[in-house]
Specification:
about 120 residues, mainly beta, 2 domains, 10 strands, about 10% helix, about 50% strand, elongated
């Protein structure tokens, strides 16, 4: 099976936390190492880097609540290039600061836009 195409491999059922993946770690264009990662490892990584896509077209301000302790690390413009202001619990927010679970997050833009808040679950 070492030389089998993925499409020729047998179909599995549901994934278990101990199932393994081959992962290219590093820069795929220059230098990388192939390592193994479990389904649990992949799940933990994905859950630690949530993204929130915020549509601010009909209204230029939106409020939501932090679902867990987190930080917002950067903002990516998806539609338009707005000036984005973030407040947490009514105070100006600095990217990278900790947001306590349950705190109100207010996102305000100066023009109709869609943005992505790139976060880290703490």
């Amino acid at each position: 099976m070492a030389d089998s195409r993925i499409s020729n491999l047998p179909t599995g059922t549901s994934l278990e936390d101990t199932d393994l993946f081959a992962v290219a770690q590093g820069d795929i264009d220059t230098s990388f190492t192939t390592i193994q990662a479990s389904t649990a490892d992949v799940k933990t990584y994905i859950q630690s880097k949530p993204e929130f896509v915020v549509e601010l077209v009909d209204a230029q301000t939106v409020d939501f609540y932090a679902p867990f302790e987190m930080s917002i690390d950067s903002v990516t413009d998806i539609l338009a290039a707005p000036t984005t202001t973030i407040q947490v619990a009514g105070a100006a927010y600095t990217l990278g600061d900790t947001i306590i679970a349950g705190r109100a997050i207010t996102v305000d833009v100066d023009i109709a836009a869609v943005i992505r808040l790139n976060a880290t679950k703490l």
